[in-house]
């Protein structure tokens, strides 16, 4: 039994070493320019051995993606477990998410460059695992929004799942913002970092639970 456990650990270590090597090469160059042979050489494996772990580069892309997503998932869970309001949890999640993006810029550059093409390919088991993680995190975000609705800190006139879905789409669009749009922002004197901060402020104000009179700009005059 001990031998079987040791072999399983060694297999997992080798698999992680392959992912590390692929990540290093994809980030330093580009996904399309790195052949499987070079990844095998980086980890001192034969090409045939490499294919025992990953059948192609697409599988490696999804393995890298899933590993990063699971790290972000851990951060998400830490925020959810705090004894604060639903609104504060959601505010913290947004802050931590964009901090994670900033700390993993090479990864997100790869995601924005090659992700759309790979996700359009015929569905496979590797992509299914990533999609399941996306679904799980989306449901967790929904639950945070629902919690805020129940404790009165988040508006309750929109379905929480729909709200979570909308914000997920918006965040993905901002992360993969076309460089030409960034240049247009700069023409207006707004840096990308400032744009992200303002987005979080904007979306936060949109989520806050406020009386209808305040949302209409009526204030005390409606009384």
Automatic annotation (TrEMBL):
Gene3D superfamilies: Tetracycline Repressor, domain 2 (1.10.357.10). Residues 12-72 form the HTH tetR-type domain. InterPro entries: Homeodomain-like_sf (IPR009057), HTH-type_TetR-like_transc_reg (IPR050109), HTH_TetR (IPR001647), Tet_transcr_reg_TetR-rel_C_sf (IPR036271). Keywords: DNA-binding, Transcription, Transcription regulation. GO terms for molecular function: DNA-binding transcription factor activity; transcription cis-regulatory region binding. Residues 35-54 bind DNA. This is TetR/AcrR family transcriptional regulator.
